[in-house]
């Protein structure tokens, strides 16, 4: 068993999950204000659970798509921690994690939301079909009207979706297993070739941020 540490900060909450010597520790912390500090929260988590970071052999990062700011912050922290501990890190698509929460469904629609846009991945048997799409709210509703009603919807910020499509789709919003599944996917990826991801790798962006769009316009 690989002792591993996982991070998710693609939306409004920080998830930290640690599997060490067959014991699991987890943290779920909603972003409350602009003073939200991942290093401090993580340090408190480590001290509270008496975690020996020298026993960690792999760090796993949920790399998006999602919040531009959150993804940059978490990946920078993960890279710094991996370099400091001299251990590998791997990135896992946030949508892949969501899809694996509902393995028993043959058709899964995964949705994440940021900056007024929805990112959508259509999965069959946990495999992404085609590419990740980016929609406005109106275009998303039009797309979902054409989807098989036996599909399962999962992701974040699904309030509007629930109101409009609650009777058409099964909608899952309980993400308590996210950290565990992220950790399992990361370990499986690493064990395939026992290589770290490139230290220069970036988050999974589907569209440019508003700042980038304004800069190039």
UniProtKB/TrEMBL annotation:
NCBIfam families: T6A_YeaZ. GO terms for biological process: proteolysis; tRNA threonylcarbamoyladenosine modification. GO terms for molecular function: peptidase activity. Residues 37-128 form the Gcp-like domain. It comes from the Bacteria. InterPro entries: ATPase_NBD, Gcp-like_dom, T6A_TsaB. This is Glycoprotease family protein. The lineage of its organism: Bacteria, Pseudomonadati, Spirochaetota, Spirochaetia, Spirochaetales.
